[in-house]
Write a structure and sequence with these properties.
Number of helices: 9
Strand content: 25-35%
CATH class of the largest domain: Alpha Beta
Largest sheet: 5 strands, antiparallel
Distance between the termini: 9 Å
Radius of gyration: 20 Å
CATH architecture of the largest domain: 2-Layer Sandwich
Order of helices and strands: EHEEEEEHEHHEHEEHEEEEHEEHH
CATH superfamily of the largest domain: ATP-grasp fold, B domain
Strand order of the largest sheet: 14-13-12-15-16
Shape: globular
Amino acid sequence: MKGYILERYDNMKNSYTCRRLMEEAGKRNMDLRTLGVHDSYLQISGDSSVLMHKGYEAEQVDFAFLRYKWGHLKEEAATLAKHCYNAPGPFSLYVNKYEQLKRLRSTHFEVPASLLVTAQFPYDTAEKLLGNPFVAKGLESSMGREIFLITGKPGWDQLRDEYGPEKEWILQQFIEDSFGKDMRIFSLRGEAVAAMERRSGSDFRANVALGAQTTPLEITEEIRLICKDLYHRTGLDFAGVDLLYGQEKPWLCEINVMPGIEGMEETTGVNIAGLMMDMVLGDVQ
């Protein structure tokens, strides 16, 4: 049984998530290797097209993990696999924060008041509708990048100057109860298999990539129901679900369609990579 991890470059095999998936694949007698999107190209001739990888036609495989978000080559690479996790359709849809905001609802969480704007949007109107401060998010950012707490007009003007006036942003009300802390849940086909709290000592963002500390989090019935609802809406085989703390219900922050597993495995002790490979094995056998 053969598979690919579709990543930016072939040498991403040394990253924690890729290495762990390959370790668990090996234990199950599965041949899993990385295929770098930037190490490949599509050769089009007449009515046919072939994905080439380092000068050779890329091999068809039984399964693939899609872990690169940009461009059309990733979608062509995904067609090499009989089963792709996550599937390119929902992956490409829900990698975008606007699509998440537009589509994801549940009786078990709240959604912050939000605006979709360009950087030319008047600061005074945003403040009137959302309050002060408010949060600005780039539509396809990750690991805490392009997420800013706007506390006044100079901060909003700085985003326009740095990123350009045409760039689109999601502006959201600031959830003060969750300043510097949030919940990350790993959902596997709607089952909450592991959860942790992320807490920052100084930043309003609680991303591990930005230095937040993590502790295991109890998986409550509320968390289980949220993961089930999100799975039914998205069809994502696995997702990182980020929730903010609220007084009555959690607030949905966002979902991650290609979550890393290092922090989750090390914090909770749950063998996430093994669970993912077992899912694949059950599908492909």
